[in-house]
Amino acid sequence: MKTTLDLPALEPASVPARTSSNYPMEEQRERVKGRSKQALGDALGLQNFGVNLVRLEPGAISAFRHWHSRQDEFVYVLEGELTLVTEAGEQCLAAGTCAGFAAGRADGHQLVNRSSRVTVYLEVGDRLPGDRAHYPEEDLEARAIKGGYEFRRKDGTPY
Description:
The protein is mainly β. 6% of the residues lie in helices and 40% in strands. It has one domain: Jelly Rolls (Sandwich), CATH 2.60.120.10.
C-alpha cells in the first residue's frame, strides 16, 4: 500500500502554517498572536469555500469579534476547549462540539482559548463575492476582494 498521498488527498501536516494576520495595523496583528492556520482548502485547490486547520495557544483569540454579511462560517473543535463569545454571552466548546454562524446575522462571534493547553479546530467558510465582515468593537470593516479582504474604517476610509 502506498504510504504517501497525492492530490486530491493530503496530510494536513504538509501544509505550511500561517501565523501572520491580514489585519491592517501592527497593534491589531499583535492582538491575534498565538493563532496559526493551515489553509487546507487552498492546498486542495478548493475555490467555493475555505477550510482552515487552526491552532490557538493558551490565551489566544481566533479573531476580533465579527460577523459576515454573506459568508456562512462553521467551526468544529478537534482538541481542547474554547470559549465562544457572542452577543448572548459566553459558552464553552469542547472537543467534538461545533458552532455555526449564518450569513447576515448581526451577532459578532469570537473564539478565545482560556485553557492551559493548545486548542485545535476546523474553520470552514464560503467565498461569496461581495461579503463584508463587521467588527462591532473595532473601527474596522473587511470587504471581500479576489483572494482575500481589504480593510477599511467604519466610515469607509482605507487604512
